[in-house]
Each structure stands twice: as structure tokens, then as C-alpha cells.
């Protein structure tokens, strides 16, 4: 039974990569047929420019997630789990946005839909802003909560917030050595 989880992950990654390739290439192919072969007067430059993020995401997922198996069937490298959260999830979101924007572009016969891609960096900036503020507050270096505290300090002098009974009790107990019984 050794390596059962690795075999499951290899199968899962192969399945996910196969599906994502199929979805993306069909979408790009359908868009190319409708806009270039049918004779719609569209420029190919936006198509190439706005397909680059999805193609880079696919390339990254392929390089990090594709398992390597030798000729005898032995797993050489499992590959990154493609079902994990975080950056992998964002790569899939970019790919799905490209597919959706291509289909909407076909329906409405315009490439201006692709400007909705600006949502991706806007979302990244929003997440980064939240992360920076959380770090700043964690280090005590500002933010909305500390500016309110300085206003109160100026009005009421250097008054410390009162401690609860539980906090006082824990402080008293903190000086005593702890005895552990077996």
C-alpha cells in the first residue's frame, strides 16, 4: 500500500491537466474560427495579448503539476498538488476567465470584453493591500485602529485600558512555578 496517496495524486493531476488543456484549447480554437475564419473583422493582436496570461498559467501548472513517470511505471516526481488553495487556485481562475471572456467575445462580437482582465490585477492589489495592513497592525505600526487610540490618549491623558478579572488572575498565576503531576 506504500505510495497509494502518490498514485492518487498522479492520477488526479493528470486528469486535471487533461481537462484544463481541453477546455482552453477548445475555447481558443472556437474563438479563432469565429473571428478569423468566418470573416469577422477583428484584429488578432488583442487575441494574442489577452491569451498570454492564460497560456502562462497553463505553462506554470504544467511544469509544476505534471507528474513524471519512468517507462517501468515508477513515479519519479509526483508534481505539485493541483487541488491546493492559493496561487494554484489563482492560475485556474485566470484560465477560466480567459475561456469565459473568449465565449462572451464571440457572443457579443467584440474584443472590448477582454478589458475586464483588469479585474485580475485590481483583485491582486486589493488582496495585497489587506495583507500589508494586517502586517502593519500586527507590528503595531499604524492602521485605522492605532490612529483612534492616539486620539483617545490625547483627550484622556495616559490612561491605560482596564484589565479584566481573568487577565489579572492570569498575571498573578504567571509568576508561580507550574507543577505537573503524572
UniProtKB/TrEMBL annotation:
Residues 143-182 are annotated as: Disordered. InterPro entries: SND2/TMEM208. The keyword Membrane applies. GO terms for biological process: vacuolar protein processing. The keyword Acyltransferase does not apply. It holds the Pfam family TMEM208_SND2. The chain crosses the membrane at residues 20-38, 90-108, 114-132. GO terms for cellular component: endoplasmic reticulum membrane; vacuole. It is found in: Endoplasmic reticulum membrane. Its main location: endoplasmic reticulum. It is a multi-pass membrane protein. Residues 160-182 have a biased composition (Basic and acidic residues). Keywords: Endoplasmic reticulum, Membrane, Transmembrane, Transmembrane helix. Belongs to the TMEM208 family. This is DUF788-domain-containing protein.
Amino acid at each position: 500500500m506504500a505510495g497509494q496517496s502518490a498514485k492518487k495524486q498522479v492520477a488526479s493531476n493528470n486528469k486535471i491537466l487533461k481537462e484544463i488543456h481541453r477546455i482552453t484549447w477548445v475555447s481558443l480554437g472556437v474563438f479563432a474560427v469565429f473571428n478569423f475564419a468566418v470573416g469577422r473583422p477583428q484584429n488578432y493582436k488583442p487575441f494574442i495579448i489577452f491569451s498570454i496570461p492564460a497560456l502562462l498559467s497553463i505553462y506554470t501548472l504544467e511544469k509544476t503539476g505534471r507528474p513524471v513517470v519512468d517507462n517501468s511505471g515508477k513515479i519519479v516526481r509526483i508534481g505539485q498538488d493541483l487541488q491546493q488553495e492559493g496561487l494554484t487556485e489563482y492560475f485556474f481562475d485566470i484560465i477560466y476567465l480567459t475561456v469565459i471572456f473568449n465565449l462572451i467575445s464571440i457572443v457579443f462580437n467584440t474584443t472590448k470584453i477582454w478589458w475586464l482582465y483588469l479585474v485580475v490585477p485590481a483583485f491582486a492589489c486589493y488582496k495585497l493591500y489587506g495583507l500589508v495592513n494586517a502586517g502593519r497592525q500586527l507590528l503595531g505600526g499604524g492602521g485605522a485602529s492605532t490612529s483612534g487610540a492616539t486620539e483617545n490618549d490625547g483627550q484622556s491623558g495616559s490612561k491605560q485600558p482596564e484589565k479584566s478579572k481573568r487577565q489579572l488572575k492570569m498575571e498573578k498565576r504567571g509568576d508561580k512555578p507550574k507543577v505537573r503531576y503524572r
